[in-house]
């Protein structure tokens, strides 16, 4: 089921007019994000894949998955994960692709017409049909993850179209082979990386956001995200060069990037019931391409201890009553980034349903959006970002966050 992006209108005519004016001003710069429903990994499997993106291996999780894999049964989720996809186009005339806009990677890649069956049913880019296409001679690349998944291909230059903005002669990766982990996602064609250039494998020297700004195509070297809650249909938006104030309340709080590779910031605390359960400051990665919040085990245990009915299972990880998602409680945990506070309602940690009959409680049990791992860094994925409008500022090397409008 795919839902199109929408904006909630005010009941007053004046506010409606103001919002419509802002939307009209920004419409040529934004890309609507859809979401995907379907079968989902259990939490340990998703943690393994998320950590692999950063080259981290947790042997305890791997051992658990190896011993339990034959007993795993993946079920369709009622409370689904959300994979935020948006449409871009490449070439002249434009060829369209559905991509994941990912602040946890830096390369832009889509399947090539030279990719065989390994690219499954994904859309493929055909350079011979583009008048602006230029292949880079002998320039090959490969992107591998710790879980064994990978893509490989060659690089080329061509126009990339984002809404009504176009970046001519953008360096892109064209995939000739991908492993089943990527091929199995039927609606996702490729990845649109939005991290810093040192993380890239295709050889980009600047982010496309920076290049668009330098060319005068967007007003600022920023990219902004609204990731809607599943209860609201999972609607979303990625906006290049500007900020859409219709999607958040209050003022943006900015946190400095500590290492310009990922969007890495300092996490200085996690407060549960007023007590800081984070032993010391840790690096945290703000990542739109990851579903979960991944933290050390002691932090995860403290968070779930505050959630009524939460329980841990070696196969499924942390789970909680699905009905808790509809709870009216305002109880929250507080994540501290730098010297700024970013609270999240506990009810917003409910993720995907694991079983129709896995619990005697009404509605069964759902996966938690917080997972634990033996990791030297914390990952703040979509579970966190659904509660906050996020702005990634290349010019000032900072991340801005403001509470998403309810």
From TrEMBL:
InterPro entries: Aspartic_peptidase_A1 (IPR001461), Aspartic_peptidase_AS (IPR001969), Pepsin-like_dom (IPR034164), PEPTIDASE_A1 (IPR033121), Peptidase_aspartic_dom_sf (IPR021109)
Any GO BP: proteolysis
Disulfide cysteine pairs (residue numbers): 115-119
Signal sequence region: 1-24
Molecular function GO labels: aspartic-type endopeptidase activity
Catalytic reactions on record: Hydrolysis of proteins with broad specificity similar to that of pepsin A, preferring hydrophobic residues at P1 and P1'. Clots milk and activates trypsinogen. Does not cleave 4-Gln-|-His-5, but does cleave 10-His-|-Leu-11 and 12-Val-|-Glu-13 in B chain of insulin
Taxonomy, superkingdom: Eukaryota
Keywords: Aspartyl protease, Disulfide bond, Hydrolase, Protease, Signal
UniProt keyword Amino-acid biosynthesis, yes or no: no
Record-annotated Peptidase A1 domain positions: 84-402
Its EC number(s): 3.4.23.21
Gene3D superfamilies reported in the protein's UniProt record: Acid Proteases (2.40.70.10)
Enzyme superclass (EC): hydrolase
Keyword Protease: yes
Residue positions of the active site: 102, 287
Family from the record: Belongs to the peptidase A1 family.
Name of this chain's protein: rhizopuspepsin
Organism in which the protein naturally occurs: Mucor ambiguus
């Amino acid at each position: 089921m795919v839902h199109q992006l929408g904006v909630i209108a005010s009941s007053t005519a004046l506010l409606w007019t103001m919002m419509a004016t802002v939307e009209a001003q920004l419409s040529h710069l934004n890309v609507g994000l859809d979401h995907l429903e379907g079968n989902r990994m259990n939490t340990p499997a998703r943690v393994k894949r998320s950590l692999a993106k950063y080259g981290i291996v947790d042997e305890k999780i791997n051992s658990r998955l190896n011993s339990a894999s034959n007993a795993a049964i993946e079920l369709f989720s009622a409370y689904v994960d959300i994979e935020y996809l948006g449409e871009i186009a490449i070439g002249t005339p434009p060829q369209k692709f559905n991509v994941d806009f990912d602040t946890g990677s830096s390369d832009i890649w889509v399947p090539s017409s030279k990719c065989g069956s390994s690219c499954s049913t994904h859309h493929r880019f055909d350079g011979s049909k583009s008048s602006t296409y230029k292949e880079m001679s002998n320039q090959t690349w490969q992107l591998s993850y710790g879980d064994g998944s990978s893509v490989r291909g060659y690089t080329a230059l061509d126009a990339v179209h984002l809404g009504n903005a176009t970046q001519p002669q953008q360096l892109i990766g064209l995939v000739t082979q991908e492993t089943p982990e990527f091929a199995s996602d039927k609606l996702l064609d490729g990845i649109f990386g939005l991290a810093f250039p040192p993380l890239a494998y295709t050889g980009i020297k600047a982010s496309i956001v920076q290049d668009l700004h330098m060319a005068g195509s967007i007003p600022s070297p920023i990219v902004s995200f609204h990731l809607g809650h599943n209860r609201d249909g999972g609607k979303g938006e990625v906006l290049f060069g500007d900020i859409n104030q219709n999607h958040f309340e209050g003022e943006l709080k900015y946190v400095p990037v500590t290492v310009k590779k990922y969007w890495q910031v300092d996490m200085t605390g996690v407060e549960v019931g007023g007590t800081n359960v984070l032993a010391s400051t840790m690096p945290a990665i703000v990542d739109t391409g990851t579903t979960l919040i991944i933290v050390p085990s002691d932090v995860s245990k403290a968070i779930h201890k505050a959630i009524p009915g939460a329980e841990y299972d070696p196969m499924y990880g942390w789970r909680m009553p699905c009905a808790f998602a509809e709870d009216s409680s305002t109880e929250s945990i507080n994540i501290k980034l730098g010297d700024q506070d970013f609270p999240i309602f506990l009810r917003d940690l409910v993720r995907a349903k694991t079983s129709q009959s896995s619990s005697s409680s009404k509605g069964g049990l759902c996966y938690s959006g917080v997972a634990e791992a033996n990791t030297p860094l914390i990952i703040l994925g979509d579970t966190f970002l659904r509660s906050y409008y996020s702005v990634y500022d290349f010019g000032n090397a900072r991340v801005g966050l403001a509470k998403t409008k309810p």
